[in-house]
Amino acid sequence: xxxxxxxxxxxxxxxxxxxxxxxxxxxxxxxxxxxxxxxxxxxxxxxxxxxxxxxxxxxxxxxxxxxxxxxxxxxxxxxxxxxxxxxxxxxxxxxxxxxxxxxxxxxxxxxxxxxxxxxxxxxxxxxxxxxxxxxxxxxxxxxxxxxxxxxxxxxxxxxxxxxxxxxxxxxxxxxxxxxxxxxxxxxxxxxxxxxxxxxxxxxxxxxxxxxxxxxxxxxxxxxxxxxxxxxxxxxxxxxxxxxxxxxxxxxxxxxxxxxxxxxxxxxxxxxxxxxxxxxxxxxxxxxxxxxxxxxxxxxxxxxxxxxxxxxxxxxxxxxxxxxxxxxxxxxxxxxxxxxxxxxxxxxxxxxxxxxxxxxxxxxxxxxxxxxxxxxxxxxxxxxxxxxxxxxxxxxxxxxxxxxxxxxxxxxxxxxxxxxxxxxxxxxxxxxxxxxxxxxxxxxxxx
Length: 446
Fold this sequence. Notes:
Low-confidence stretches: 1-10, 91-98
Structural class: alpha+beta
Mean pLDDT: 77
Distance between the termini: 74 Å
Strand content: 15-25%
Radius of gyration: 56 Å
């Protein structure tokens, strides 16, 4: 497009970019040869239109070689010194206000996101445990980027020699080298076999994206918006894959067998410990019962001993009183019997004897009470069981053992007895844990 300038009767240019998709686009007047001087000629008074999301870069001769001026969109105005002060030094001698000046104009799309598909051809990836077997591996994906810092982008690239295809090839080469390095080191980095490398595709993608963001910003002046590794493909028909698969399967089988042996040993140790705990519990109960019987026997013997001592004391007292009566019956003057003394001694002896008889009768009544020679009954252990959220029981140990055998009592069934702070799983109660030693485990859900 062009405008008619009445003052100079010349044709003025409308400088703008109408390309539907571009990253960098250079403007030229219509009809100008690419290598002619007119290809960079801009008339004073021409209009410049820059869309939102784009920037126009004017590259013009200066005393130091070339200078640059940036005009960010949206912009739509006539090129004049009041809105473009650099023109004052460019115009020089104007011929009737319409003299052209030399400047290159580039439009840079800041909103355009460029997507580049990349593919890494088959290369060998080695398992760090088996370095003799290389597995051919290929990678495919897409990288998306855009220009955010256009001044840094221009500093890194010569706009007059910029070629989008060449630029994309350079970016693709960097991406391929980075992806190849990340995939090759993935088995050792993530400690996984090569045959499982596809399971770490998201982790590999993340590390590649982080490295490419820094590298492409530093070397190319572009900002990575997304890296998408879509496929990590192993050549499963290759000899290296088959050999590594066989070796890995053998190692996995041996590992499972070793782990199974360890688990079985743990189960045996646990059952032995639980059996020992049960035996110790029963032993303590027997000792407590024997101690109670011993104390009862000692108490009975002590009562008999006290009665024997009291009876002996009574007998000794009676004998002493008898002697007193005999001695008192003789007159101290030698004149014969003393009836008064004799009767007094007999009366006193009768009173004492009666009192002793009463005392011994009371004690003997206690002795003659029937004594149960059999040991007291063993205290009954009773537990309540939570069934469907409801309290059930109490049940003694025999009932609980039957319930465990029939599946009515499980390891995670909640139980409680008097003295416990709250409901706990049956397996956590020491004296109940042994009930599950001979019960089969639950059938796993398929």
